[in-house]
Design goal:
With about 375 residues, this protein is an alpha/beta fold. It is built from 13 helices and 13 strands. Strands 4, 6, 7, 8, 9, 10, 11, 12 and 13 form a nine-stranded mixed β-sheet that branches. It has a four-stranded antiparallel β-sheet with strand order 3-2-1-5. Helix 7 links the parallel strand 7 and strand 8. Helix 9 runs parallel beside helix 10. The longest helix is centred in the N-terminal third of the chain and has 21 residues. The protein starts with 5 loop residues before the first strand and ends in a 6-residue tail after the last helix. The mean pLDDT is about 95. Bound molecules: calcium ion. The site of calcium ion (CA) has 5 residues, from loops.
């Protein structure tokens, strides 16, 4: 037992409006939000975490969990994970409760790293790699202009900046999607990887129609072709066409991924460390994927805390194959406007020529300044 105890936990609900709203298959985005968690110990250490998902829902779950943490030893990450999960398992197996638990677990691991003066990936037995490629995640629809023109321009810009992989939003109708796929493939040339993401917009019938038409364009993966509940839909799509099927940003815990893995419903799973259960749980999920020989490409969509946590997870992700040059796991690099993320970002957390280093400072490897987040606080 360490002598350390948790004396306080704080949650911050942050929001910022966007100068230029953008659209994906399920609607327009005109603001970005974040829920950050700060855990403070009696010896002065502070850990930070972040929850993915709707902010006010995670905040409600954090209020429930907070009293369970006060006075406990923050190094007992496994014990605390089970205590919180067990308390609410009947109604909290997926969604906001696990989002909140993820944020808490990330903050506890940040404390653990600071306590032992090691980055989290070292405490988890790594690192297996010191840097990873980042892929450019953007190519949304905009208010004005012709998508074929502005998407091609945006994709070409990512290639100029050194990115070797880009992800395009689809799910706007098959013909419209095909125009975008052709324009972007033409703009980036044949050497750059192109992924597409429908955010669950289609049913299996239309997803298969689109996939078959996209097959000649060398698509690296087709992400969330159908809604996350439709596991049989994933299987159906995966079976009848050649583009690898990816999903998992809306799946939670080892129990959620168990069904996907045992049924081989996906080619690539995409757990988000700020949603699937934090470090404690994602370590298990990535190891399970490894045991099933299924690729893992974590989802990342948040502030500097989410990025830093994802990097520590990427550092310990097992290689799917044992060949001399295994496929490196990639960091999803969100190129959309996000003032909160930008305010918290440090130079150590930016890709250079499409590559990003794993921070080697203790814990998450970043320092959060409370003054920086204050302007974005809601209520
Ligand atoms: Ca996605």
């Amino acid at each position: 037992m360490s002598e350390m105890k948790i004396i306080e936990t704080r949650a911050y609900l942050l929001e910022c409006p966007l100068d230029r709203p953008f659209a994906y298959s399920r609607g327009w985005v005109d603001r970005r939000g974040a829920v950050l968690v700060e855990i403070i110990t009696d010896n002065g250490l502070t850990g930070w975490g972040e929850a993915f998902g709707p902010g006010r829902m995670s905040l409600g779950a954090l209020d429930l969990i907070r009293p369970m943490l006060i006075g406990t030893d923050p190094l007992q990450t496994e014990t605390l994970w089970h205590k919180i999960y067990g308390q609410y398992r009947e109604h909290g197996q997926k969604g906001p409760l696990i989002d909140a638990l993820s944020a808490i677990d990330i903050a506890l691991w940040d404390i653990k790293g600071k306590y032992f003066k090691q980055p989290i990936c070292r405490l988890m037995g790594g690192p297996l790699r010191l840097e990873v490629p980042a892929y450019a995640s953007g190519l949304f629809h905009q208010r004005d202009g012709n998508p074929e023109t502005y998407l091609a321009k945006e994709a070409a810009r990512y290639v100029e900046q050194g990115y070797s992989a880009v992800k395009l939003k689809v799910g706007f109708g098959i013909d419209e999607d095909m125009r975008a796929v052709k324009a972007v493939r033409q703009a980036i040339g044949s050497d750059i990887s192109l992924m597409v993401d429908a955010n669950g917009a289609y049913d299996a019938v239309n997803a298969i129609r689109l996939a078959r038409r996209m097959e000649p364009y060398d698509i690296t993966w087709f992400e969330e072709p159908v809604p996350p509940e439709d596991i049989d839909g994933y299987l159906q799509i995966k079976t009848v066409q050649s583009i690898p099927v990816a999903a998992g940003e809306a799946e939670f815990t080892r129990f959620g991924f168990r069904e996907i893995l045992t049924r081989r419903a996906l080619d690539i799973i995409q757990p988000d460390i700020c949603a699937a259960g934090g470090f404690t749980e994602c370590k298990k999920i990535v190891d399970m994927a490894h045991a099933f020989g299924i690729r893992c490409s974590p989802h990342t969509w948040g502030t500097a805390i989410a990025i830093a946590a994802s990097l520590q997870l990427l550092a310990i992700l097992p290689n799917t194959s044992s060949v001399l040059h295994p496929i490196p796991p990639m960091l999803e690099w969100d190129f959309t406007e996000h003032s909160i993320r930008d305010a918290l970002l440090t130079d150590a957390l930016r890709p250079i020529d499409g590559m990003i280093s794993i921070p080697e400072m203790p814990g998450l490897g970043i320092e959060i300044n409370r003054e920086t987040i204050r302007p974005f606080e809601v209520g």
